[in-house]
C-alpha cells in the first residue's frame, strides 16, 4: 500500500492538486510499483474529490484513509467516513488505538520515568495527561478496566478490539516496543467476538462521547 504523506489540508481542496495526486498514484500502480493507494488525514470532502477525479478520467481511486481512532478520538471515523465507506468502499486504516500509550493505563499514577511522556519531545503529551481532561480520561480508563477484566482481557486488548469492531475499519496500526508487547496486542483478535452490542453500550456509557451521525440527527428531528 502507498499512503500519501500526512499534511494539514487547506480549507478548499484544489481539484488540480487532487487530479495530480490521483494520476501519480495511478502511474505507480500501473507500473507495478504499488498495488493500492490511500490517503492520510484527508477530509471526507477531499477523498470524495479524489474519487470523482478518478471516475472522470478513468484513474485509480484511493482505497483507504489513515485516521486517528481510539476511545477518546471518534468523530471523524464514526461520523464523517462511514458515508464514504458505504458509497465508494473506502476503508479506514486507523492509527494510535492506544492514544500514544494513554490507554495502556501506565499514566494512572503520574508520568513514569523512561515513558514517552517523560521525554522532552513529548512535552505536549505530558501536558495532555496532567490536564483536567487527562485526569478525567484516567478515571474513565479505570471503569473500562472493569469491563476488560469481565471479558478476560487487558485494557489495551479491549481498546484495539473496540477499534476493529467498527465495520469501516479495515486494519489497525500498532506501535509496540518489543515482541512480547506485540504478541499481547495481537490477542485483541480473540476479544472481537466478545464485543457484543451490550458491551459496546457499556463502553459508550463510560466514555460519554459517542458522536452523532447525520442519520441520528435527522431521526431526532
TrEMBL record:
<dbReference type="InterPro" id="IPR005400">
    <property type="entry name" value="K_chnl_volt-dep_bsu_KCNAB1"/>
</dbReference>
<dbReference type="GO" id="GO:0006813">
    <property type="term" value="P:potassium ion transport"/>
</dbReference>
<dbReference type="InterPro" id="IPR036812">
    <property type="entry name" value="NAD(P)_OxRdtase_dom_sf"/>
</dbReference>
<comment type="similarity">
    <text>Belongs to the shaker potassium channel beta subunit family.</text>
</comment>
<dbReference type="Pfam" id="PF00248">
    <property type="entry name" value="Aldo_ket_red"/>
</dbReference>
<keyword id="KW-0633">Potassium transport</keyword>
<dbReference type="GO" id="GO:0044224">
    <property type="term" value="C:juxtaparanode region of axon"/>
</dbReference>
<dbReference type="GO" id="GO:0015459">
    <property type="term" value="F:potassium channel regulator activity"/>
</dbReference>
<keyword id="KW-0521">NADP</keyword>
<dbReference type="GO" id="GO:0016491">
    <property type="term" value="F:oxidoreductase activity"/>
</dbReference>
<dbReference type="GO" id="GO:0008076">
    <property type="term" value="C:voltage-gated potassium channel complex"/>
</dbReference>
<keyword id="KW-0630">Potassium</keyword>
<protein>
    <recommendedName>
        <fullName>NADP-dependent oxidoreductase domain-containing protein</fullName>
    </recommendedName>
</protein>
<dbReference type="GO" id="GO:0005737">
    <property type="term" value="C:cytoplasm"/>
</dbReference>
<keyword id="KW-0560">Oxidoreductase</keyword>
<feature type="domain" description="NADP-dependent oxidoreductase">
    <location>
        <begin position="18"/>
        <end position="193"/>
    </location>
</feature>
<dbReference type="InterPro" id="IPR023210">
    <property type="entry name" value="NADP_OxRdtase_dom"/>
</dbReference>
<keyword id="KW-0963">Cytoplasm</keyword>
<keyword id="KW-0813">Transport</keyword>
<dbReference type="GO" id="GO:1901379">
    <property type="term" value="P:regulation of potassium ion transmembrane transport"/>
</dbReference>
<keyword id="KW-0406">Ion transport</keyword>
<dbReference type="InterPro" id="IPR005399">
    <property type="entry name" value="K_chnl_volt-dep_bsu_KCNAB-rel"/>
</dbReference>
<dbReference type="GO" id="GO:0055085">
    <property type="term" value="P:transmembrane transport"/>
</dbReference>
<dbReference type="GO" id="GO:0044325">
    <property type="term" value="F:transmembrane transporter binding"/>
</dbReference>
Amino acid at each position: 500500500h502507498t499512503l500519501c504523506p500526512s499534511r494539514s489540508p487547506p480549507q478548499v481542496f484544489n481539484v488540480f492538486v487532487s487530479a495530480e495526486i490521483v494520476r501519480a498514484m495511478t502511474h505507480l500502480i500501473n507500473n507495478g510499483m504499488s498495488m493500492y493507494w490511500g490517503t492520510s488525514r484527508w477530509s471526507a470532502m477531499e477523498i470524495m474529490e479524489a474519487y470523482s477525479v478518478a471516475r472522470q478520467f478513468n484513474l485509480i481511486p484511493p482505497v483507504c484513509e489513515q485516521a486517528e481512532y481510539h476511545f477518546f478520538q471518534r468523530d471523524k471515523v464514526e461520523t464523517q467516513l462511514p458515508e464514504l465507506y458505504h458509497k465508494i468502499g473506502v476503508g479506514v486504516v486507523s492509527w494510535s488505538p492506544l492514544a500514544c500509550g494513554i490507554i495502556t493505563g501506565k499514566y494512572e499514577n503520574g508520568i513514569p520515568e523512561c515513558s514517552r511522556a517523560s521525554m522532552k519531545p513529548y512535552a505536549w503529551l505530558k501536558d495532555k495527561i496532567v490536564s483536567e481532561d487527562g485526569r478525567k480520561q484516567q478515571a474513565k480508563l479505570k471503569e473500562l478496566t472493569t469491563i476488560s477484566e469481565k471479558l478476560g482481557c487487558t485494557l489495551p486488548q479491549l481498546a484495539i478490539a473496540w477499534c476493529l469492531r467498527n465495520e469501516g475499519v479495515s486494519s489497525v496500526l500498532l506501535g509496540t516496543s518489543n515482541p512480547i508487547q506485540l504478541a499481547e496486542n495481537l490477542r485483541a483478535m480473540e476479544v472481537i467476538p466478545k464485543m457484543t452490542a451490550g458491551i459496546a453500550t457499556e463502553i459508550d456509557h463510560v466514555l460519554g462521547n459517542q458522536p452523532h451521525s447525520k442519520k441520528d440527527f435527522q431521526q431526532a428531528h
